[in-house]
Write a structure and sequence with these properties.
It is a single chain. The chain is α+β, with helices and mostly antiparallel strands. The chain is built from one helix and four strands. It has one helix at residues 42-55, and strands at 3-4, 16-21, 24-29, 38-41. The chain has a four-stranded antiparallel sheet. The longest helix has 14 residues, at 42-55. The N and C termini lie far apart (29 Å).
C-alpha cells in the first residue's frame, strides 16, 4: 500500500498519512509509522473529509 501525506505538510511537521486498499482507508501518525492505524470505510472517509472541509 502506498501512503500519502497532505501537500500542505512542511518538512518535519507532524502529519497524518493516508493509505487506501480496496475501498478501505488507513490513517496513521507520520511520526509513529509503527504505531496504531485507524481503519475506516469509504463512506466514513467521505464523511470525515466533508466534516473537515466544512470547518476550514
Amino acid at each position: 500500500m502506498q501512503w500519502r501525506t497532505s501537500t500542505h505538510t512542511s518538512d518535519g511537521a507532524n502529519c497524518v498519512e493516508v493509505g487506501e486498499h480496496r475501498g478501505t482507508f488507513y490513517l496513521r501518525d507520520s511520526t509513529d509509522r509503527a504505531g496504531p492505524t485507524l481503519i475506516i470505510t469509504y463512506n466514513d472517509w467521505i464523511n470525515l473529509l466533508s466534516a473537515i472541509r466544512s470547518r476550514v
